Amino acid sequence: MRKLKTSRQPEILDAALAIADERGLDALSMRAVADRIGVTPMALYGYFRNKDELLDGLVGRLLTEVAPAGPGGSWQERLTSVAWATRRVAREHPSVFPLLLFRSSATPDGVRVVDAIYQALLEAGVPEAEVPRMERLVSTFVLGFAVSEANGRFSSASNASRTRRGGEDAPAHRRLAEHLVVDDWDAEFAADLADLMRIIRPV
């Protein structure tokens, strides 16, 4: 077994992410990560005291992929960048992505992402008192869409399920039958984001 150098925290998180991607979060443990990178479990405790801290580290690891690259671009472009990156991360790491919903993002990476959203909303002209609420609205939509898609709620199977609901007790379903099938989820997501932008700053 080898010792970890001080720069090996990213290696630990990459190993944890790989295990969770391959076998799910239930398979993730300090011992599994240690075995993956060829060290003793005790070697990890200088970086993460327990599995909870490891999970918090994974939240930060995912958020580094979501954060906008820099302050450049319009507020719409930065919010759109965060939204599409979040959806991509959910597709790439469906087993791990729900951590963003269920665990606090009060890590440095989480704070950076939220602060970037706050800044974009301020630039959009949202009154300061309304910015936190609007951030929750934006984040809830983006996270909810992404996790729904990653878990199969938005799929060809879900299209088929919606079209079968038009029984006697579902008159609105029958009326909307031709509109219930979604052919392009990218276009749906883009349209939803456009609606959000109009809510943030009505034309």
Overview of the molecule:
One of its GO terms (molecular function) is transcription cis-regulatory region binding. InterPro entries: Homeodomain-like_sf, HTH-type_TetR-like_transc_reg, HTH_TetR, Repressor_TetR_C, Tet_transcr_reg_TetR-rel_C_sf. Residues 29-48 bind DNA. Keywords: DNA-binding, Transcription, Transcription regulation. This protein has 203 residues and is an all-alpha fold. It has 2 domains: 6-49, Arc Repressor Mutant, subunit A (Orthogonal Bundle); 68-200, Orthogonal Bundle (Tetracycline Repressor, domain 2), CATH 1.10.357.10. The protein has 10 helices and no strands. The protein is flat. It starts with 8 loop residues before the first helix and ends with a helix.
CATH architecture of the largest domain: Orthogonal Bundle
Query: Which percent range fits the helix content?
Result: 55-70%
Number of helices: 10
Shape: flat
How would you name the oligomeric state of the polypeptide chains in this document? single chain
- CATH fold name of the largest domain: Tetracycline Repressor, domain 2
Structural class by helix and strand composition: mainly alpha
* CATH homologous superfamily heading of the largest domain: Tetracycline Repressor, domain 2
Q: What integer value in Å does the Rg equal?
A: 20 Å
Query: How far apart are the first and last residues' alpha carbons, in Å?
Result: 62 Å
CATH classification, class level of the largest domain: Mainly Alpha
Count of folded domains? 2
Q: Taking all residues together, what is the mean pLDDT?
A: 86
Q: What fraction of the residues are assigned to beta strands by DSSP?
A: under 5%
The low-confidence parts are 1-5
Q: What's the count of strands?
A: 0
Give the H and E element order: HHHHHHHHHH
The description of the largest β-sheet is: none
Organism: Nonomuraea thailandensis
Keywords: DNA-binding, Transcription, Transcription regulation
Protein name: AcrR family transcriptional regulator
Domain HTH tetR-type: 6-66
